[in-house]
């Protein structure tokens, strides 16, 4: 795998399970790449179809294999872990683009607790010497 940049868009969710006794979930997403700091979207209040429209760019050093996604329900004292999944980046490194709904599963029951719509783009770093070697004169 080559070094480069990963552009992450976490657009929306659907079918988010509620864990609160009253009302719907207040969902947000935590996400991270192997060995890197966790990032998160904003919380959307009282909905099972959140729209986050969150975008960020993550530098890649070439050793990353997975993007981890965790769906949480924000509560006053602590957030409830609704579920998680991982996206294997191998296919993204080959095709450079992925637009997909990923199913998030409960860590306890393995049942689906919702889906997250992701758009991922990989931009490989072009080596200056490689560019000169491939240049036609």
From TrEMBL:
The keyword Metal-binding applies. It holds the Pfam family C2. GO terms for cellular component: membrane. Residues 1-102 form the C2 domain. InterPro entries: C2_dom, C2_domain_sf. One of its GO terms (molecular function) is calcium ion binding. Gene3D superfamilies: C2 domain. CDD domains: C2 (cd00030). Keywords: Calcium, Metal-binding. The keyword Ribonucleoprotein does not apply. PANTHER family: C2 DOMAIN-CONTAINING PROTEIN, MULTIPLE C2 AND TRANSMEMBRANE DOMAIN-CONTAINING PROTEIN. This is 8701_t:CDS:1. The lineage of its organism: Eukaryota, Fungi, Fungi incertae sedis, Mucoromycota, Glomeromycotina.
